[in-house]
Design a protein that fits this description.
single chain, alpha+beta, Alpha-Beta Plaits, three-stranded antiparallel beta sheet, 3 helices, 3 strands, globular
Length: 73
């Protein structure tokens, strides 16, 4: 598994998941349940992950869509 991005923005996270899903890339959200333990105030970022096999393709798709990824910072 490889991390594509970390974000507290749930709307952006779901948008990116939809973009990748349309391309047939399965995504996984890590740390989503941590927001429950923190009281749902959004301090802890969620991580968007993909399989190693899909990582390069997913990055290419997202960069062409104008998204900044974790490694771009």
């Amino acid at each position: 598994m490889q991390e594509l991005l970390r974000t507290n923005d749930v709307v952006r996270l779901e948008y990116i998941r939809a973009v990748l899903g349309e391309e047939g890339i399965e995504t996984f959200v890590f740390d989503g349940h941590m927001s429950i333990t923190e009281g749902s105030i959004g301090i802890l970022p969620r991580r968007l992950m993909v399989t190693d096999e899909d990582a390069d393709r997913a990055r290419t798709i997202l960069r062409s869509a104008g998204e900044e990824l974790s490694e771009d910072r």
